[in-house]
Write a structure and sequence with these properties.
The complex is a heterodimer. By secondary structure, chain A is an alpha+beta fold. Chain A has helices at about 1-10, 15-40, 50-60, 155-165, 175-185, 185-195, 250-260, 330-350; strands spanning about 75-85, 100-110, 125-135, 140-145, 210, 215-220, 225-235, 265-270, 290-305, 325. Chain A is about 30% helix and about 20% strand. In chain A, strands 1, 2, 3, 4, 5, 6, 7, 8, 9 and 10 form a ten-stranded antiparallel β-sheet that branches. The relative contact order of chain A is 0.18. Chain B contains five helices and two strands; from the N terminus they run H-H-H-E-E-H-H. The chains are: A alpha+beta, B mainly alpha. Chain B: It is found in: Cell membrane.
């Protein structure tokens, strides 16, 4: 044992037993630390649903499309501005709601799904994602869809539904048996699907209402804190260019042509939850009589094909929020943020093929 | 005659940063695999990272003004070299991790939001490829930092429990009972 003492520099008088016990204690501290790290990092729970597995499933269902968003893969950049009317300042201290404040906005219209070259179809869910650029570097990013409720309540249900709704190669449609099994396991999704199916589908992007779907919290300057949902609702009768039926990009082309004729306006409506309204369940609508506050006008002025440096390279992460807007405890919010981030990280490192929507840019500046 | 112990600011910074850095490594490795915790953990990760960057800079200044006590004269040369190399790595990684994090968020055009309305300016131009590279680097450096910390903790405990040569006592938050005893 004297050799061991010399080797590791222990005093010659330290008994072998003491030495071994202390060495074992040091080993235990190191093994415990490494084990904690591995546990927290998920290595000991390989079955857990992770952001990477959600994105893996998109890739499995849609096939590989490197360089594109794994969902809402087909899109077109838009630019515009948001003019606040001051009514939102009572609800949120976020600077963009100050009376008369005008905030530059860039965004993206897209079709849901992970197929970047799919032909436009009227019933495909349309989305509008926006990035409000506030002074001093603050931003508000939000992704909204033209459906009044979200089809699933939890990230786990979302993950299951992706596979259940995967088109059967033989029929081109989802397997009805699997869809039935999913609906049976998730009655809230069956109810939401009926609400979504009953919605009015408008002519195109220009006359669609886009709902934020998840609840957030608006925090006012006086510290008051309210659960809210928001939507942008098109202004006035639809003066839109009709889509040329049968063209693969008819909805996008019609929208670009509409904005080329002149700007389109939407009103940002913020709905405040009442007592007992489901804040953590995006499948359930809030009662129609809830107070909706028109907080200002979103004007979209132009479109541009996705390209380096514009909306293509923005992750419309729903948790990029200014001071005055905060997440609710809706479980989809953190999951969306995590999955978007994973999709963004993967596509950022991939070569980016041109978008299927590559028409000439319309008027209006798009950065 | 150099002091046998690190000065009080050095000890305070060491133990506060030890807690912060271990918390950051666990937050970081946990958040990237968590759907439910991601949002809250990322919001904590950014300001903590910038806090660590500031503290690491303060620590370098203090170290320059108050050099650490010398290692025991009887320490074998290879252990002396390992100690020096691991401290260079620790300081390098303490500074590099927050800077790479800030740079990668800048390249991705995420706002580097800290607390309330405070947002740091970008330190790199927008570039998805640059972001992807820095994002991988951030992970690799985090594993490296965790590895160097394990080596550091193992060596510190060897000094404190087995060699009992005063090295552990020089950074211990408490006063040594007898000179030279860890």
């Amino acid at each position: 044992m004297a050799l061991l003492n010399t080797l590791i520099g222990a005093p010659p008088g330290m008994p072998a037993r003491t030495l071994l016990v202390r060495l074992a204690a040091i080993g235990a501290v190191l093994a415990g630390s490494a084990g904690t790290f591995a546990y927290v990092g998920g290595w000991l729970s390989p079955g857990a649903l992770t952001p990477a597995r959600v994105i893996d499933r998109f890739e499995e269902v849609n096939g590989p499309h490197p360089g594109f968003r794994r969902n809402h893969a087909k899109g077109l950049c838009v630019a515009g501005r948001f003019a606040s009317n001051g009514a939102g300042a009572r609800l949120s201290k976020a600077g963009l709601f100050a009376d008369g404040r005008e905030t530059p906005v860039e965004g993206r219209v897209a079709l849901a799904g992970g197929q970047p070259y799919a032909a436009d179809a009227e019933a495909t869910v349309r989305s509008l994602a926006l990035r409000f650029r506030l002074p001093d570097g603050e931003e508000w990013r939000t992704g909204m869809n033209n459906i009044p409720v979200f089809p699933v309540r939890t990230p786990e249900a979302f993950y299951e539904q992706l596979l259940a709704a995967k088109p059967d190669p033989a029929t081109g449609k989802p397997d009805p048996e699997r869809m039935r099994a999913f609906a049976a396991a998730h009655p809230e999704s069956a109810t939401a699907a009926a609400v979504i199916k009953a919605r009015t589908i408008t002519a195109g992007f220009a006359d669609s209402t886009y709902w934020g779907l998840n609840a957030f919290r608006f925090v006012a300057a006086d510290g008051s804190d309210r659960a809210v949902r928001w939507a942008v609702v098109p202004e006035g009768p639809a003066q839109t260019v009709p889509a040329a039926r049968g063209d693969r990009n008819d909805l996008f082309d019609a929208f670009a042509a509409t904005l080329a004729q002149g700007p389109r306006r939407w009103h940002l409506l913020v709905t405040v939850a009442g007592p007992g309204d489901p804040v953590a369940d995006a499948t359930r609508p809030w009662p129609a009589e809830r107070e909706s506050v028109d907080v200002g006008t979103l004007t979209l002025t132009g479109t541009a094909p996705e390209a380096a440096g514009n909306c293509r390279d923005i992750n419309f992460d729903p948790l990029v929020l200014p001071d005055g807007i905060a997440p609710s405890d809706d479980p989809l919010l953190s999951a969306r943020s995590a999955a978007y981030s994973r999709s963004f990280t993967r596509r950022s490192g991939e070569e980016k093929p041109p978008s299927a929507v590559a028409g000439a840019p319309s008027r209006g500046e798009v950065r | 005659m150099p002091s046998a112990r690190f000065n009080r600011p050095a000890r305070l910074l060491h133990w506060v940063m030890a807690a912060l850095i271990l918390a950051m490594l666990l937050i970081g490795v946990g958040m990237v695999t968590s759907l439910s915790g991601y949002g809250a953990l990322v919001a904590l990760h950014r300001p903590l990272g910038i806090l660590i960057l500031v503290l690491a800079l303060l620590r370098l200044v203090n170290r320059r003004l108050h050099p650490p006590p010398p290692l025991p004269a009887d320490l074998p040369a290879w252990q002396r070299r390992a100690a020096q190399a691991s401290h260079v790595a620790l300081y390098g990684l303490m500074l590099a991790m927050p800077l790479v994090g800030w740079a990668m968020l800048s390249a991705a055009r995420y706002p580097v939001a800290l607390v309330g309305p405070v947002v740091l300016p970008p330190i790199l131009p927008r570039s998805p490829m640059l972001y992807a590279g820095l994002r991988s680097l951030h992970t690799i450096l985090a594993y490296a930092l965790f590895g160097v910390i394990l080596a550091h903790v193992g060596a510190a405990l060897l000094h404190g429990l087995i060699r009992r040569d005063g090295v552990f006592a020089s950074m211990a938050p408490w006063r040594p009972r007898r000179p030279g005893e860890g």
